[in-house]
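hey m, so remember when u said the tokens were messed up on ur end? i reran from scratch. heres the input so u can diff it against urs
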Amino acid sequence: MVIRKKEITAIDFGGLEIFDYTAKCNDKSSFAVIRVKPNVNHQLSRSKRSDKYYYVINGNIEFLINNEIITLNEGDFCIIKKGDKFLYKNNSNEIVTLVLVHTPSFILEEEVYE
């Protein structure tokens, strides 16, 4: 299977620009690229279904995972386990690009936002 970027429409999620490459697939995992604009954050949340795997393509971003602050830089990777509370924010003046893999695949109804 090949999915081309030109086939993907970005989703605006509170200032996050999400390119969900596997939205039309029913797979065991899902894959997205996220562009985090300057001074934008992902609200505090947790997943009832999926582990989340984040890889930083460019920039620096601050994660809060279970009340622990962690700064990730270009090339860094983190895993957020199902049920872990987390948020992330871009405190810089540049767009940060992340890769996100959900396992099992992302289902919006299984995400809890606080």
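this time it looks ok to me. The chain has a mean pLDDT of 95. if urs says something different then somethings off w ur setup not the seq
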